[in-house]
Write a structure and sequence with these properties.
This protein is α/β, with parallel strands linked by helices. The chain folds into 2 domains: 13-144 and 272-330, 3-Layer(aba) Sandwich (D-Maltodextrin-Binding Protein, domain 2), CATH 3.40.190.10; 146-270 and 336-357, 3-Layer(aba) Sandwich (D-Maltodextrin-Binding Protein, domain 2), CATH 3.40.190. It has 13 helices and 11 strands. Strands 1, 2, 3, 4, 10 and 11 form a 6-stranded mixed beta sheet that branches. Strand 1 (41-47), helix 2 (53-63) and strand 2 form a beta-alpha-beta unit. The longest helix has 15 residues, at 201-215. It is globular and about 60 Å long. It starts with 12 loop residues before the first helix and ends with a helix.
């Protein structure tokens, strides 16, 4: 959601005076505060296509506030912007490995769980997997999921549900993979039988060679932002990405919806738990807690997952309220592996990815 500046011409002294009086009356609201000092604006930094507009609007109406909603396409993009400082965000949505990094770097506020009444709705299975913060000291799980592959079966009628699809030279120029280091290298690692979190240089070298020598020649580009649009307009027939992005873009084309298959390859792959976190120094703390609690209200969480075709992975109570059949199931992601904070080993991945991206 974006703010729209108020525009208009003021004519005559009376209109000028009226405007001045209005500014005086609303003075405390400028900068995100109401006359009683409470917050009237919440600043959110979230993944693209990740919270329904209807949910944001309900929160705004229920609490009488304005939500400023900015988007990012990868953890790396989000982290770089926050590291630059001065973002002004209150709530961010990093994946588990970046939650761990940001905890260690003191970038997150400690969660006061006494201010959250809906934490009991969170599925214990997800907390078991969230080994980076199982007690929710700095993060509250938002969603557990995985990227997969969307295929236009009208153009590609025969295919295997495997990451090896990106090695098909006959589809050269019609495929994209995410511009996401951990996702792409993780796909290659599991294709070779390795962990997505390997710290073995030889294993990572083999995975990087698979991407660089076998997959990359067939790709139009690495793309974490416009792959859904490119798929929807027919430029791409096979894309690695997130189901919600693809189906959001093709929703207006019933024939393409009918011809689209989304799958998570049988080899597994990287999984993620994205979390609601409060950025250190957030100015709208009370409103941030209200938003986190609002999201985990079962009816609101059910609305969120139904909108995107998700299973209700992080909020057990919402499962009974869901009305839509999800695009994939919990069983589909059972064989995936969460991306860990790699610590110093992350530099190996950075180097491998930089070499792969040369020329792109």
């Amino acid at each position: 959601m974006q703010k729209t500046p108020v525009q208009g011409a003021v004519r005559g002294g009376l209109l000028i005076l009226a405007s001045v009086l209005q500014l005086i009356a609303l003075g405390a609201c400028v900068g995100g505060e109401s006359p009683d000092g409470s917050s009237t604006q919440l600043n959110i930094y979230n993944w693209t296509y990740y919270t329904p507009t209807s949910v944001i609007q309900k929160f705004e109406e229920e609490y009488g506030v304005k939500v400023i909603y900015d988007e990012f396409a990868s953890n790396e993009e989000m982290y770089a912007k926050l590291q630059a400082g001065g973002s002004g965000y209150d709530i961010i949505f990093p994946s588990g490995d970046y939650v761990s990094i940001m905890i260690h770097q003191g970038m997150l506020e400690k969660i006061d769980r006494s201010k959250l009444s809906n934490l009991g709705n969170i599925d214990p299975l997800v907390l078991q997997k969230a080994t980076y913060d199982p007690s929710m000291d700095y993060s509250v799980p938002y969603y557990w999921g995985a990227a997969g592959v969307a295929v236009n079966t009208a153009k590609v009628p025969d295919y295997e549900k495997s990451w090896s699809i990106f090695g098909r030279a006959d589809l050269k120029g019609r495929m994209t993979m995410l511009d996401d280091m951990r996702e792409v290298l993780g796909d290659a690692l599991v294709s070779l039988g390795y962990s997505v979190n390997t710290r073995n240089q030889a294993e990572l070298d083999r995975a990087a060679a698979l991407v660089n020598d076998v997959w990359k020649p067939n790709l139009t580009k690495f793309d974490a932002e416009a792959f859904g649009k490119g798929y929807a307009n027919g430029d791409f027939w096979v894309v690695q990405g997130y189901a919600e992005v693809v189906y959001e873009e093709i929703a207006g084309d019933p024939e393409l919806v009918e011809n689209t298959v989304f799958f998570i390859p049988g080899e597994g792959g990287p999984a993620y738990i994205d979390s609601l976190c409060i950025l250190k120094g957030a100015k709208n703390l009370d409103l941030a807690y209200q938003f986190i609690d609002f999201i985990h209200r079962p009816d609101i969480y059910a609305e969120f997952v139904d909108f995107f075709g998700f299973p209700a992975t992080a909020n057990k109570a919402a499962g009974a309220l869901k009305q839509e059949v999800p695009l994939y199931t919990v069983e589909d992601i059972a064989g995936t592996e969460l991306k860990d904070d790699l610590g110093e080993a992350l530099e190996m991945y950075n180097t491998a990815w930089e070499n792969i991206k040369v020329g792109y």
